[in-house]
Task: structure prediction
Amino acid sequence: MSNIEKQLQEINSRLNTLRHYQNSMQEEIKKLEQKLLQLQSLIHPEPATVPIQQKPVTMAPVITAPVYQKPISSNEQIRSKPLVPENTRLENFIGTNLISKIGILITIIGVFIGARYAIDRDLISPSTRIIFSYIFAALLAFTGLKLKEKYNAFSAVLMGGSIAIVYFSTYIGHGYYNLIPQLAAFATMFITTLLAVGLALWYDQKIIALIGQVAAYAIPILLSDGSGKAAVMFTYITIINAGLMVLSFRKNWKIIYRIAFAITWSIYFGWIQFETNSKLSWGWVLFFISLCFISFYTTYLSYKIFKKELYNITEVSVLLLNAVLYYFLGYVLIDRQFEGTNVLTVFTLANAGVHFATGYFIHRLKLADESVRIFLFGQALTFITIAIPVKLDGSWVTLLWSIEAAILIYTAAKSERKLYYQLCGIIMIITLVSLVQDWSETYNIHRYTTTPYLNQTFLTSLFTAGCFLFACIKSRTARLPFSEVSRLRTIFISWIPVIFIIILYLGIFHEINMFYDQLHTSNPHPLRINFLGISMLFCYTLLFITAAITTNTTFVKSEQLFYFLVIASLLTLALQITSGFYALAGLRNTSNMWVRYLNITGIALLWWSILTAKKQFNRNTWERILLSVAFNITLLAIISNEYINWVKLSGSSSEYNLGLTLIFGAYALVILFIGLLKNIRYLRIEAIVLFAVTIIKLFLYDLRSVGTIGKTIVLIILGVILLAASFLYNKYVKKNTAGEN
Result:
């Protein structure tokens, strides 16, 4: 029953979230109704003369009971019965919105061009110029206030322009003419910022808030005198952020929150990176960046707790980046002050504690969706993971990202939200990049000083592969919140297993290669060890792919994975036929002769797994033809290589090229016979092509290097083979043509 009760609680939680979201939409619809009526009154000056019965306004109905029906968006309503004719919408937008903003911008530019002209020609004194600028700003503000009741949007543009003029006039009066002391200029800009926030709330216009926000952050930069009073600047930024966060939350203007986030962290990052003369202690800087972290952290969670918002990729990215930037800057400050101590570990655990406590508090009081708690617990676990190797580097970083990816895929499967799968994909890419860096450092720089199979990089490779395997399993067992043809679904169902196989294969491959590299340096026969190493790598590759294909055929049953493994098999076989057999030739007459037959066994097992899986996945004629050609080339290469090997071992001085020619001809006769017997047309064509290659080889290469007796014997045998082929073809082709494949 506990499981059922848990499911009931989750369903109730989701229903409460949706109901809250529905109520929020109702409030938003009411606001839009009021705005639409105001706009309609501007277009039709006498709306009262039109009876409501004759001209109903199409609006979304206010839902008073939880009736489940398909919501009609405002865009669909407007398309069905537009309040404004379609051919006049662009005209109204330009006339009521765009022209006003362009006009105020041109006006401000004109004021400053005029001021510049007066400055260059000394027509008026500097103090008069500043006074006139303030007067002009006041006139704009006064005009805006007069027009607010009837023309709210236009009035807001005028007020924004007046605020911008005040900011720049104050900056010019302080920075260029020294007419305004720094404290007075700071106070003026600060008060103007507060007025801008208040006006933005009063007007309910984002443009005023944005002007005030940009100017507010410009104040400490514009009015800086290089004295290094960082405490004053950081205090000011903290106060400004607090006001802007409240404004962003109350009006749901997230752009203000995001701009504040970007600018504030850029200021702190730049200051810590480049400031060297400040007398502000590291403790105070850590205190201020902690306040910055808390303000953005609280604002983000407030949207989830009070507004019951669902996750989206932008907001979660901001939350993650907020935690990462805070930890990074705190790490830099503490490391500079307490290098070589345990303070960094304590700081890391404190970060984990903040996320864990917040997640537990939200879960305990049921303040937000369950996925919020899971995500915060995931962050806490991440910082706990960091705390262990915080003084280390290299593979520990990859380990961290692997754990983070596993946590995100678990969260995604638990919450069934597309966002977490997207974040998990990003973390997986970072994990792969970090792992490749670890491989490069260990297997290139430290390849002769690292213990094979017992090193951190190898264990990290196995752990990372395990995390990707966990992602494969979770992706296949969870209900993915996207369509069957989604690109994201294709990535998690098809490509994550491929990445898992590549990581596992390369992790072991590098260790085998490093083992033989180290053995190569200390062995009296380095060339033989080199050949042995290459041969063992081929053995490993053949057996690994065989195991992968068998596992996929038996358990996973992924067609995409099968095709990937077949491509990998064909590439491996091509390299085996060229480089692999050459390396095996170097082990001839040595105690490592057994490796040759281990390789051949690996090739046989690989083809057995491919042909077994082909029955389950392969349905295309061209694919069957490709596999047939590859199989026959492989088998012919093995037979030919074995012939050359035993000729060399026998000590015979005779040329083996003619023997290869006869082998080619005999093999072509065999596959021709099978093609005729099984009525398989592409086998017959393969035989004909091989006969052609054999004849060309014979006349262009073989006959030039042998005597008359040798030529006679080879020509007779090959002629007999060709005659036999012709006989078989004529005997069976008429019988089988009607039933050709």
Summary: Residues 46-87 have pLDDT under 50 and may be disordered. The radius of gyration is 38 Å. DSSP finds 24 helices and no strands in the chain. The first helix runs from residue 2 to 43.
